[in-house]
């Protein structure tokens, strides 16, 4: 009887504000020896079995004989005997900031023809991570200190034969093949002009076939607009008094066919240092400034507004405290954000010369 190895694969989403949305992640690698097979798997599945009859005879065949298997997560309704801890979320992982416990995925493999010692086991190569599209680049696997496993009663510790880590990084440049998905409009109390989202921010409205005016039950699903973005963000500077600035923000989902679960938005604004007093209606976190860039992340409250429903919106308020020593002023457009990201994707901003102008008497 040939010895089979059990491998546990854990995927951690350490990104602060980019989560893995539906239809979820997929992971591919190439077996280095080329003869390894996956006999059994829990918590995930391969998308193809491959030609196992060429190597194996009989009724019982391996789960996958592909030399470069592609694995995907199982759905939440998977039978209990096919699950392992942290599996079966449909490939969806939240960002690390929002919910660390749901930013982890795991599955277990039973591998044959893979060797039996740390001298004979060969580390796979050519790891590729999709989530669900392009943008991620994975480095080579690096052998690290073997993982230690503690028994449930904490009386025994066992050690893995080998452990290796693979780091995958996300690049906006590599993901630029996709069009933008959001845009920003601006308004203020001191000017009646509303600066709309730039025209054709996400697409151009050429004909009635490219959008819908109402939910007609037909594709396409994005509401007709000059910007044609499924997500629009409106920033309204509502109040400016001696001690505070108050801002109203509205996030609108103009997609009639998609809910955005566990959404988040990152705002770059110079007043996101120690002057952010409160965010009303959402959770938020300030990030440590880097090279003078001040960022804050906001996201919905579970079971209240963490799901941005189709053709719906979420509203919240931001209260800034004024600093007497600060150089920030309305004359320099500091009342408006410098950048906004929705679910990790940068939104299209109006050009600076289109911002609402400050009247001379102000």
TrEMBL record:
<keyword id="KW-0449">Lipoprotein</keyword>
<feature type="domain" description="COBRA C-terminal">
    <location>
        <begin position="181"/>
        <end position="215"/>
    </location>
</feature>
<keyword id="KW-0336">GPI-anchor</keyword>
<dbReference type="InterPro" id="IPR056900">
    <property type="entry name" value="COB_C"/>
</dbReference>
<dbReference type="Pfam" id="PF04833">
    <property type="entry name" value="COBRA"/>
</dbReference>
<protein>
    <recommendedName>
        <fullName>COBRA C-terminal domain-containing protein</fullName>
    </recommendedName>
</protein>
<dbReference type="GO" id="GO:0052324">
    <property type="term" value="P:plant-type cell wall cellulose biosynthetic process"/>
</dbReference>
<comment type="similarity">
    <text>Belongs to the COBRA family.</text>
</comment>
<dbReference type="InterPro" id="IPR006918">
    <property type="entry name" value="COBRA_pln"/>
</dbReference>
<dbReference type="GO" id="GO:0010215">
    <property type="term" value="P:cellulose microfibril organization"/>
</dbReference>
<dbReference type="GO" id="GO:0098552">
    <property type="term" value="C:side of membrane"/>
</dbReference>
<keyword id="KW-0732">Signal</keyword>
<keyword id="KW-0472">Membrane</keyword>
<feature type="domain" description="COBRA C-terminal">
    <location>
        <begin position="219"/>
        <end position="356"/>
    </location>
</feature>
<keyword id="KW-0325">Glycoprotein</keyword>
<dbReference type="Pfam" id="PF25079">
    <property type="entry name" value="COB_C"/>
</dbReference>
<dbReference type="GO" id="GO:0005886">
    <property type="term" value="C:plasma membrane"/>
</dbReference>
